[in-house]
Structure formats: C-alpha cells, structure tokens
Amino acid sequence: MGGVSSSRNDSNKSDLSPSSSIPGNSQNHNPSTTSSNVPLPSSGFSVATETPEASDQSKKPTDANGDEGQEVEEEEEGECGFCVYMKGGGCKDAFVAWEDCVKEAEDSNEDIVEKCHEVTRSLTKCMEAHADYYEPILQAEKAAKEEAVNELKEKAAKKIRIKCG
C-alpha cells in the first residue's frame, strides 16, 4: 500500500499537550455560559466539555506521525478533548471508572459527589502520582479552588459589614 500523506494546518493541531493550560478547551471556562459541564475529579468544580457541534467529527484519528486512518486508540466518535486527554495518561482506567460512576449517578438522579466519592479519590491519587502528565488539570483545579475560597471570603466579609454597618 502507498503511504498516506496528511497535511495539517497549525490551527488544527490538538490542544491536548501537557503544556496546554486546560486540555480540550480553547477558550476560558465560564460555567454560566457552557451547555455541558463535567465535574473535575477531586472537587465540585467543572471543566466545560465540547459540544458535538463545536468539534469537527469528520476528522479521522491520527497517529503520532500525523497519518490519518490509523486507529490510535479506541475512541468514541465526538468524545470531548478533556476525556481524550484524561484517557491518554496513566490514569485511563481510573478515569473510565469515574466516568462510568458519574453517568450512573446522573442516570439514576443520585448525588454525584456522594455516589462517586471513592472512585473520585482514586482518580485524584492516580493523577497526583502521574503529575508530570496531569499537571495542567491539577493546576486548573487548584486555581478553581482558590477562586472559590476567595469568593466565599468576600461574601462572608460583606455579610459582616452588613450586620455591623
């Protein structure tokens, strides 16, 4: 068979490299404007996921050499960039277990945090053990936690000023 050539535009390159600030997301996350949010593994915070309309599903998976049509990994059509990234590291099995738990909880209208507490803890420990790969996600979680703490402090300060003022 002849070689498959592929021309890729730099703007189409995957943003799933560990140096990306938030893999799978090309714009800043704003929970009030996203249509689909996925809670991050160790917290109640979320990362926006791509909608099928936002991703180009006509593209075929490419291998490390950029050859189209090579099956790189079993991948669901239209899978979000965040999920692809999470499955690309050493915590694929832990992430799939977490994903399954979240889906189960959603399908049965259960509290995700309560139902998936243990599997979330396992995924978080795995990510910390593989921090070289998952650092962008861990950093995003840390920043989100810090922001939430600051917001709570501001709200508490306002309540104190209102009561005392």
Automatic annotation (TrEMBL):
SMART domains: GCK
Stretches the record annotates as Disordered: 1-78
Superkingdom field: Eukaryota
Sequence ranges of Polar residues compositional bias: 29-55
Ranges of biased composition (kind: Low complexity): 14-28
Domain GCK: 78-152
Biased composition (Acidic residues): 65-78
The protein's name in its UniProt record: GCK domain-containing protein
